[in-house]
Every structure is written in C-alpha cells, then in structure tokens.
C-alpha cells in the first residue's frame, strides 16, 4: 500500500501551520506600526497651537 | 570594551534590536525555506519507500524535526525566561515569550502528523501512550504560557509569570525524551541519533538532517519576527516607533 493520502494530508498540515507561522508575526508588526501611525496623528491633532490667536 | 560584549549590550536596546530583527528574520526564513525545500524534495522523490511501512514513513521527515524543534523551543524559552528573571533583561523576556507560539506550532505539527501516521500503522488516530500524552501536555504548557502572557496587562509582570511557568514546565522535557524507555510504549524507541549510529538506512538520512537544519533556521526567523512584533508593542509610545511608522515618501 502506498498510503499516499496520509502522506499528502501530513504535508498539508505541515505547510498550513508553517504558513500561519510566517504570516502571523507579519500581521502583528503591521498592526503595531499602524497603531503607532494613528497615535502620532492623534497626538499631532491634539497639540495646542504654537502661535496664539491674534486679537487684532 | 570587547566588540562582541558591546554588540550584546547594543542588542538590548529596543531600536537596535528592531533593526537587527528586521534585517535577519527574512534571511533566516529564506535560508530555512531553501534547506527545507531540499529536504522535502529528497523525502518525497529521492528516498525509496520503506520495505515495511511503504510511503507512510515519509511523514517522518516532517514529524521528527518538528518533534525535536518542539522540545528545543521549550528549552530555549525556559533558558531565556531564567535569564530574564535573574538579570531582568527585557529583551530576554521578549525572546522567551516569542518562543511560545513557534514552539506550539511545531508541537501541533508533531501531534497532527504523528496521528496521521498512526492511523495506517497502528490502526488508530490516537492512543494514550506515554510519548503521545507527554507531547500533548507540552502543547498545553505552551498554550498556558501564551494564555498567561496575554492575560496580564503589564507586559513585564506578564512575562515574569509566564516565564516562571516555562521554567517549571521544562521538567517535562526529559519525561518526553525518556518516555519510550521508562514505560512500555507503543511509540517506537530512538531510531535517529545525533551522535552515534542511527537505526535507519544511511540513504534515508540526508533529507532528514536537511529538514532538521531547515526547521531550526525557520525557527530563528520566526522567533526574530515575533520578538520584533512584541518589541514594537512594548515600545509603542516611544518616538523611535513613531518615526519608524511614518509613511515613507
């Protein structure tokens, strides 16, 4: 018997888990950088004006 | 200061580690992938079928390296956790916690591929055999470390608590290794030896060693990538992260 189906199933499991292992940290890094970008934008918006409004 | 010592000190700096991990993780991934591609080609197309097990023995080429990696990752995690607890090195906390998901992934592969091999060879998907049971406990330990780390808000306290679990859990590793000799196990004994003669035909060994080296290189890549993500998460409020996140023109 060749047990080909079992071999294919085992290698598919291996490939799927390795693919997840490759993608998951990439998504995390992207998410952290996006959060940092949004935070920087928010901080920039909330910063008080450097020049006070003129009364003239 | 000696350049190597200075490099170690520099590596402890989060921005320096970010640059280091961003540079070396892809290289380790690609090297691991190439070596594994060679190993997989040999395992599937070059090595002859086993005279008793037929083609099903080809599952061994992913099962054994994953099993070794699952235990090596746990030992490394415990080592990093111990260094982090003793010397309070933040980078070691990050690296210890980055070991857990990769180790869990390899443990899952080990259990799943072992189960797939067990169905045609043993006639069952699962048996409460000492080796299988202890490997399943290893997976639960990994999940426990990951769960504990994510359950506590303060990153440093979380990594200390989870690190302690990793250090205690390392006692399981010799039990897994010697389970086939201590108890009357359905799982076969040690066939492949790092040192000394293996009970496997020499023609079948080169793809296996390639897979062992390939999975180790992959582990390094994944460890650096995950440590990089955690490093950015911990340093999220710092200026250097904001600068890094700035869209490039």
Largest sheet of chain A: none
Helix content of chain A: over 70%
Question: On the 0-100 scale, what is the average pLDDT of chain A?
Answer: 85
Q: Kindly, what is the distance between the CA atoms of the first and last residues of chain B, rounded to a whole number of angstroms?
A: 39 Å
Q: Kindly report the CATH topology of chain B.
A: Four Helix Bundle (Hemerythrin (Met), subunit A)
Q: How much β-strand is present in the residues of chain A?
A: under 5%
Instruction: Supply the helix-strand structural class of chain B.
Output: mainly alpha
Gyration radius of chain B, rounded: 20 Å
Overview of the structural elements:
The complex is a heterodimer of chains A (56) and B (249). Chain A has 56 residues and is mainly α. Chain A is rod-shaped and about 90 Å long. Chain A starts with a helix and ends in a 10-residue tail after the last helix. Chain A is 77% helix and 0% strand. The longest helix of chain A has 43 residues, at 4-46. Chain A has one helix at residues 4-46. The model of chain B has no long low-confidence stretch (mean pLDDT 91). Chain B has 249 residues and is an all-alpha fold. In chain B, helix 3 packs antiparallel against helix 4 (90-122) and helix 4 runs antiparallel to helix 8 (205-234). Chain B has helices at 3-11, 14-46, 60-87, 90-122, 130-151, 155-169, 172-182, 205-234, 239-245. Chain B is 76% helix and 0% strand. Chain B has a single domain, classed as Up-down Bundle (Four Helix Bundle (Hemerythrin (Met), subunit A)), CATH 1.20.120. The chains are: A mainly alpha (56), B mainly alpha (249). The interface between A and B is medium-sized, with 29 and 41 residues.
List the helices and strands and how they pair.
The complex is a heterodimer of chains A (56) and B (249).
Chain A lengths: L3 H43 L10
Chain B lengths: L2 H9 L2 H33 L13 H28 L2 H33 L7 H22 L3 H15 L2 H11 L22 H30 L4 H7 L4
């Amino acid at each position: 018997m060749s047990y080909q189906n079992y071999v294919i199933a085992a290698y598919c499991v291996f490939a799927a888990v390795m693919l997840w292992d490759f993608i998951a940290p990439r998504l995390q890094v992207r998410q952290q950088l996006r959060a940092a970008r949004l935070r920087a934008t928010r901080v920039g918006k909330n910063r008080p004006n450097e020049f006070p409004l003129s009364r003239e | 200061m000696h350049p190597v010592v200075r490099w170690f000190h520099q590596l402890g700096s989060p921005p320096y580690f970010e640059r280091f991990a961003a540079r070396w993780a892809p290289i380790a991934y690609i090297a691991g992938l190439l070596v594994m591609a060679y190993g997989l080609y040999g395992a599937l197309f070059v090595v002859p079928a086993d005279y008793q097990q037929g083609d099903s023995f080809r599952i061994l080429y992913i099962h054994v390296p994953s099993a070794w990696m699952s235990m090596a990752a746990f030992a490394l995690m415990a080592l990093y956790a111990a260094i982090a607890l003793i010397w309070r090195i933040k980078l070691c906390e990050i690296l210890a916690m980055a070991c857990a998901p990769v180790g869990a992934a390899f443990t899952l592969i080990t259990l799943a591929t072992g189960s797939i091999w067990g169905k045609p060879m043993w006639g069952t998907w699962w048996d409460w055999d000492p080796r299988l049971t202890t490997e399943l406990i290893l997976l639960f330990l990994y999940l426990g470390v990951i769960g504990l780390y994510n359950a506590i808000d303060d990153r440093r306290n979380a990594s200390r608590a989870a690190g302690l679990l990793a250090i205690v859990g390392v006692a399981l590793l010799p039990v897994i290794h010697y389970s086939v000799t201590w108890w009357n196990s359905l799982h076969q004994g040690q066939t492949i030896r790092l040192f000394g003669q293996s009970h496997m035909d020499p023609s079948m060994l080169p793809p296996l060693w390639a897979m062992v080296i390939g999975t180790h290189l992959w582990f390094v890549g994944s460890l650096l990538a995950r440590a990089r993500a955690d490093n950015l998460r911990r340093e999220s409020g710092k200026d250097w992260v904001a600068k890094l996140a700035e869209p490039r023109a």
